[in-house]
Amino acid sequence: MRVLYHPEFSKDIQRFEMDCRAVSDGLAARFRDQVQTALEAVKGSPQGAGHFLQTGSTVVREFRRRNLRQFPFFILYGVTEAALIFGSVIPTRSDPLTWLVWFGAK
Question: Which helix (H) or strand (E) holds 55?
Answer without folding.
Answer: strand 51-55
